[in-house]
């Protein structure tokens, strides 16, 4: 207190009172913090903690991931088409026809008649090509265009399920062959995708059923769960699109990942978990892949339903 020797008795008294007040406040804060910590520990002992998710060793649980804009930035078929176009897989007249159909689709939406026209065009492009040829090309295209576009955050979510001993499936409208390549490269269990007919290893130009889109995804997940003995209430599903609400609604743990505006609204209303790994700019352009030229875009669209086969 020597340093305070110049302060008058009255000033000294005021200063001492301030010191006392500060010390008392500090002591009270320490006491409150200690009591709070003790109460928290006691409460934790009384209340069972929420189990970690995914639950390790739960063999009746699995995870289902949409592909485009959920696991991979942009549309996988867009990237696949870039690789096919680079290899001169398409003719110019086929590109022009399908490019116009894609423009119509973007302007008018999912009109049934034009969707059918686009699907028929895509199938006609691959008709007569060998499945093995496109599988080999697909492996190369993954390395060229897709590997660097996997969202690390979504990849970590999938890995958490694998680490917990659960199976992880891609569920996508993309060709089952392309989806299978991606799943294998990511170390996932497998993939559900659209199937195109092939006979003797050659595409016939026909689909087996319909594209795996919207409600069809939910039906595929339901069927797989039944075959695998899974409890859907213990499973998780991940998607960016409101089109996948039927699939997300099937499971007990739905996640909206990089969601479009409709899915974001739906998820918030129902208390679903949200994850967004995009930058603000990318989020504003949800669903629109980075442009790489009209020809490449048309090539990606042309591959949209095409690379699937029936297994005989």
TrEMBL record:
The keyword Metal-binding applies. Gene3D superfamilies: HAD superfamily/HAD-like, SG protein - dephosphorylation function. The keyword Magnesium applies. Pfam families: HAD. Keywords: Hydrolase, Magnesium, Membrane, Metal-binding, Transmembrane, Transmembrane helix. SUPFAM superfamilies: HAD-like (SSF56784). CDD domains: HAD_PGPPase (cd02612). GO terms for molecular function: hydrolase activity; metal ion binding. This is HAD-IB family hydrolase. It comes from Streptomyces telluris.
């Amino acid at each position: 207190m020597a340093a305070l020797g110049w302060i008058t008795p009255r000033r000294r008294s005021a200063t001492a009172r301030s010191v006392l007040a500060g010390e008392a406040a500090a002591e009270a804060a320490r006491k409150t913090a200690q009591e709070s910590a003790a109460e928290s520990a006691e409460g934790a002992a009384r209340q069972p903690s929420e189990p970690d998710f995914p639950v390790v060793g739960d063999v009746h649980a699995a995870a289902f991931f949409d592909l485009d804009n959920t696991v991979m930035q942009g549309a996988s078929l867009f990237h696949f088409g870039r690789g096919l176009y680079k290899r001169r897989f398409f003719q110019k007249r086929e590109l022009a026809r399908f490019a116009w159909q894609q423009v119509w689709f973007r302007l008018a939406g999912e009109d049934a008649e034009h969707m059918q026209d686009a699907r028929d065009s895509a199938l006609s492009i691959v008709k007569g090509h060998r499945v093995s040829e496109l599988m080999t090309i697909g492996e190369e295209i993954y390395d060229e265009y897709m590997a660097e576009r996997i969202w690390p955050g979504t990849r970590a979510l999938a890995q958490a399920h694998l680490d917990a001993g659960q199976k992880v499936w891609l569920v996508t409208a993309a060709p089952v062959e392309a989806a299978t390549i991606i799943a294998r490269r990511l170390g996932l269990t497998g993939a559900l995708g659209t199937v195109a007919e092939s006979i003797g290893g050659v595409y016939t130009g026909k689909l087996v059923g319909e594209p795996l889109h919207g409600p069809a995804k939910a039906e595929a997940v339901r069927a797989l769960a039944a075959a695998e003995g899974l409890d859907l209430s213990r499973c998780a599903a991940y998607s960016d699109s409101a089109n996948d609400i039927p699939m997300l609604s099937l499971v007990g743990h739905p996640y909206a990942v990089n969601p479009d505006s409709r899915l974001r609204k739906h998820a918030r209303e129902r208390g679903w978990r949200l994850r967004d790994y995009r930058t603000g700019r990318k989020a504003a352009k949800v669903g629109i892949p980075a442009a790489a030229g009209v020809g490449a875009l048309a090539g990606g669209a042309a591959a949209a339903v095409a690379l699937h086969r029936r297994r005989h």
